[in-house]
Amino acid sequence: MTLVKTFTLRFNPEHMQFDDTVLGEFVREHLVVSMKTEFFYFREEPLWSVMVTYRDQHTPSHLELV
User: What's the pLDDT tens digit per position in 41-66?
Assistant: First the structure.
């Protein structure tokens, strides 16, 4: 089964980067098919949105519908 999860990453001005710790952990633990990113501002705050498409590792691939 193919699933989708969206992460919204906040900019850390102290380190001058986006905190992608949660995204990195997720990617290491799941079988990622694709990622799509979008940068935007919300109420003058820079945000980075990442949509991750991944496969459920518990479903046999021969049963999947694409």
Answer: 999 999 999 999 999 876 555 555 55
Inside any domain, residue 65: no
Report DSSP state, residue 46: E
For the stretch 23-42, pLDDT in tens is: 999 999 999 999 999 999 99
Asked whether residue 62 is domain-assigned, the answer is no
Please indicate, yes or no, if residue 13 is contained in any of the structural domains. yes
Identity of the amino acid at 54: Y
> Model-level pTM?
0.77
Which residue, among 56, 53, 41, 54, has the nearest Cα to 11 in the 3D structure? Answer: 41
Domain count, the chain: 1
